[in-house]
Specification:
Organism: Pelomonas nitida
CATH topology of the domain at 126-222: Pdz3 Domain
InterPro entries: PDZ (IPR001478), PDZ_6 (IPR041489), PDZ_sf (IPR036034), Pept_M50_Zn (IPR004387), Peptidase_M50 (IPR008915)
Number of helices: 12
CATH superfamily of the domain at 126-222: PDZ domain
Domain PDZ: 197-256
CATH architecture of the domain at 126-222: Roll
Strand order of the largest sheet: 5-4-6-7
Membrane topology: Multi-pass membrane protein
Enzyme class: hydrolase
Strand content: 15-25%
CATH class of the domain at 126-222: Mainly Beta
Helix content: 40-55%
Largest sheet: 4 strands, antiparallel
Distance between the termini: 21 Å
Shape: elongated
Order of helices and strands: HEEHEHEEHEEHEHEEHEEEEEEEEHHHHH
Length: 454
C-alpha cells in the first residue's frame, strides 16, 4: 500500500511539472508565430486527444514519464513555401533559442512561485535549538553545546543569513558540505543571550554521500528531553525493562542532559566487540528505578555501535515560520537561485571527483520523497515540487545534446559563427550526449537500489 501511495504522488508531481515545462515551450513558440502540431504529456500510445482552435493536437499518452511539443519544421520534414513563416527552423537564432529556453524558464518560475507560496503560507518547524553533539562530530569539535540556539549562518564569517528553523540550518549545512566549504554559525543560549560564533569544518566531509552516517558525523542534533519514546518488542531495551515514558536521569553516575547525550552514550557502550552493561537511573511515574541495559552491537557504515532498539527523545521545540507576500517572493527567488548555483557547483565537483556520484538520485528516491512530503502536509509537498521543478530546470539547461541546453549551445555557435552546426557534428554529439545521459541514469538507479538495499 505504501509503495502504491509513493507511486501515486510521484505521478502527481510528474503530472504537474512536465506540462508546465512543455507549456513554456508551447507559449513562446505560439508567440513567435510557430505552428505547434502536438502538445503531448507522456509518450507512447495516445489515451486522450483534443484539437485546439489553433490546430494544435493536445494528447495524454500511456507512459507518463515526460512529454514533448512537436512544432512545424523542427525535424527534417519538408515545409511548404507558404508555411515557412510558421516553421521553427526558419526562425532567427534568437527566437529559436527563446523557444528552447522557455521550458526550463517555466520550471524555474514555478519553483520561485512555489517557494514563495510555502514561505507565505507559513509552517510549524523545529526550532534551531541544538542538543549534545555526538562525540568526535564536527559540532563537538566546533564547540557546539547542548542548548545552543543557531541564529544565523555564513559561508565566510562576514555575510550572514538569518536562520528561522532547524530545516533551514540543515539545508545550509548540506550545501556547505556538498560544495566543500566551511560554515560559520552564530549561536546564543535559549533566551537569546551570550552570542558567539563557531566554525563548522564541513569541508572535512566534502565528497561524502548524504546519509545518516554523514548527519551523525556533522552532529547538529535537535534538543530533546532524554525520554524513552518507544520500546521495540524483543529488543535489548525491552529485555532490560525499559518502558515508554521513562526519563533517563543518570548513566554510570553521570547526569543525562538531553536525548543527544543519551543516544551517544548508548552507541559508545561497548569495548571493541564486547557490549558494556550500563547502570541507569530512570524516573518512572514519579519513582526512581535502577536498570542495567546491555546494548546489542550493530554495524553502522563500517563502525560498531551499541543499539538498545528504543526510540529516544521528545518532540523538539517548534516555531511558526512565515513571511509577508513581497518578502516571500524575494525568498523564493533567492532560494531558487541558491539551489541552481549549488547544483551546478556540485555537478562540477562530481565531474572532477571531488564529490560523490551518490548525490545523483533516481525515480525511486524521488518517489520516496514525494510520498514522505505528501504525508507530512501541503507545505512540505509544495516545497518538494519546487525543488524538483528547479532540478528539472537546471538539468535541462546542461549543455548536453538531447537536452534544451545542448540545443542552446548549437544556437550559440550559430549566432557567433554565422553558420549552423553541421549534420555530422550534430549526429556525433547526439550519440555522445545519449551515452552520457544513459550513464547518469544508470548511476541514479544504482544509487536508488543501494539506498533501498542498505
Amino acid at each position: 500500500m505504501e509503495l502504491i501511495q509513493k507511486a501515486f504522488w510521484f505521478l502527481i508531481a510528474i503530472g504537474i511539472l512536465v506540462p508546465i515545462h512543455e507549456w513554456g515551450h508551447y507559449r513562446v513558440a505560439r508567440a513567435c508565430g510557430v505552428k505547434v502540431l502536438r502538445f503531448s504529456v507522456g509518450f507512447g500510445r495516445v489515451l486522450w486527444r483534443r484539437v485546439g482552435r489553433d490546430g494544435t493536437e493536445f494528447v495524454i499518452s500511456a507512459i507518463p514519464l515526460g512529454g514533448y511539443v512537436r512544432m512545424l519544421g523542427m525535424g527534417d520534414e519538408p515545409v511548404a513555401p507558404h508555411q515557412r513563416d510558421q516553421a521553427f527552423r526558419y526562425l532567427s537564432v534568437g527566437r529559436r533559442a527563446a523557444i528552447l529556453a522557455a521550458g526550463p524558464a517555466a520550471n524555474w518560475l514555478l519553483a520561485i512561485g512555489l517557494f514563495a507560496l510555502v514561505a507565505c503560507m507559513g509552517s510549524e518547524q523545529p526550532k534551531a535549538l541544538l542538543g549534545t553533539p555526538p562525540a568526535a562530530s564536527l559540532a563537538e569539535r566546533a564547540g557546539v553545546q547542548a542548548g545552543d540556539w543557531v541564529r544565523a549562518v555564513s559561508p565566510d564569517g562576514q555575510q550572514w543569513s538569518d536562520v528561522q528553523s532547524l530545516p533551514e540550518l540543515h539545508a545550509a549545512v548540506a550545501r556547505a558540505q556538498a560544495l566543500g566549504e566551511s560554515l560559520y554559525l552564530t549561536v546564543t543560549d535559549v533566551q537569546g543571550h551570550g552570542s558567539r560564533s563557531v566554525r563548522l569544518e564541513t569541508e572535512r566531509l566534502a565528497g561524502r554521500s548524504p546519509d545518516a552516517r554523514l548527519a551523525a558525523d556533522i552532529g547538529l542534533v535537535p534538543e530533546a528531553e532524554p525520554v524513552i519514546r518507544q520500546v521495540v518488542a524483543g529488543g535489548a531495551g525491552a529485555a532490560a525493562g525499559l518502558q515508554p515514558g521513562d526519563r533517563v536521569l543518570t548513566i554510570d553516575g553521570q547526569s543525562v542532559p538531553d536525548a543527544g547525550f543519551l543516544r551517544d552514550a548508548i552507541q559508545r557502550a561497548h569495548d571493541g566487540e564486547q557490549p558494556r552493561t550500563m547502570a541507569w537511573r530512570v524516573e518512572r511515574a514519579g519513582q526512581v528505578v535502577e536498570l542495567s541495559p546491555t546494548p546489542r552491537l550493530a554495524d553502522d557504515a563500517g563502525r560498531r555501535v551499541g543499539r538498545l532498539e528504543v526510540g529516544v527523545g521528545t518532540m523538539p521545540a517548534m516555531v511558526v515560520v512565515s513571511y509577508g507576500p513581497l518578502e516571500s517572493l524575494w525568498r523564493g527567488a533567492q532560494q531558487s537561485w541558491d539551489m541552481a548555483v549549488t547544483t551546478v557547483k556540485l555537478i562540477g565537483r562530481m565531474l572532477v571527483g571531488e564529490a560523490s556520484v551518490k548525490n545523483f538520485s533516481g525515480p525511486l528516491t524521488i518517489a520516496d520523497y514525494a510520498g514522505q512530503s505528501a504525508r507530512a502536509g501541503l507545505s512540505p509537498f509544495l516545497d518538494f515540487l519546487a525543488k524538483i521543478s528547479m532540478s528539472l530546470a537546471v538539468l535541462n539547461l546542461l549543455p548536453l545534446p538531447m537536452l534544451d541546453g545542448g540545443h542552446l549551445m548549437y544556437y550559440l555557435f550559430e549566432g557567433l559563427s554565422g553558420r549552423p552546426v553541421s549534420d555530422w557534428w550534430q549526429q556525433q554529439l547526439q550519440r555522445a550526449g545519449l551515452l552520457i545521459l544513459m550513464v547518469i541514469m544508470a548511476l541514479a538507479l544504482s544509487n536508488d537500489f543501494s539506498r533501498y538495499a542498505g
